[in-house]
Amino acid sequence: MYEEQTLEEEEIFSGRVVKLSKLTVKLPNGRTSTREVIVHPGAVAVLAEPEPDRVILVKQFRKACETELWEIPAGKLEPNEDPDAAAKRELSEETGFSAERMERLFTFYTSPGFANEKLHVYYASELKEGEIHLDEDEFVETRLFNRQEIDRMLQMGGIEDAKTLVALLWWCGRNR
What is the pTM of this model? Predict the structure, then answer.
């Protein structure tokens, strides 16, 4: 088994979403190296299907990418927050919907080469409409898309967000 033992950790930055650390590690061959690691609290994302063959996407500007992206509703976990509760919270905040049925589909690391963010992806159905209540620094456009629109977006490269690609490909595959 190949493991790297952390010998030293230097915190480079600590913000409200992430922490950046520089680690000195002992490699399996006995040598040492450095790793820059982003520590993230984890996140949830929800593929919501309010009616058969229609899903909800939100469009928001992502500064890191300098573009607007269509995504499934998502957000980071609060300290000690249960992912199931966070998924319900994020769905409600970004879309106004609440779900009678919520099923966890996948849990995966988003970028394990440099970050420890673990993302929990859910499927929500039997939705009830309510009011959107975004955070004060969130600006999103919410829209329903049918299967043909999603297929076209996937074929044309209109979905560039990884969590959304994973969820939509699952959705398209299960409904064929």
Answer: 0.94
Domain residue ranges of the chain, discontinuous segments joined by +: 5-39, 43-174
Range 12-21 contact pairs with CB under 8 angstroms and sequence separation of 24 or more: 12/36, 17/41, 17/76, 18/115
Segment 83-105 mean pLDDT:
97
- Token representation of residue 72: 């499934």
Fold of 43-174: Nucleoside Triphosphate Pyrophosphohydrolase (3.90.79)
Burial label for 96, CB within 10 Å (0-12, 13-18, 19+), is middle
Q: Is 86 left (phi over 0), alpha (psi -120 to 50) or beta?
A: alpha
| Cα Dmax for the chain | 58
User: pLDDT tens-digit profile of 98-134?
Assistant: 999 999 999 999 999 999 999 999 999 999 999 888 8
- Beta sheet of 19-26, edge-to-edge order: 5-14, 19-26, 32-39
User: Which residues are catalytically annotated?
Assistant: 136
- Token pair recorded at residue 108: 């995966």
SS3 content of the chain, % helix, strand, coil (to 5): 20, 45, 35
DSSP-assigned letters across all residues of 104-158: EEEEEES-TTTB--EEEEEEEEEEE-------TT---EEEEEEHHHHHHHHHHT-
For the cut 70, the answer to whether the pLDDT of residue 175 exceeds it is no
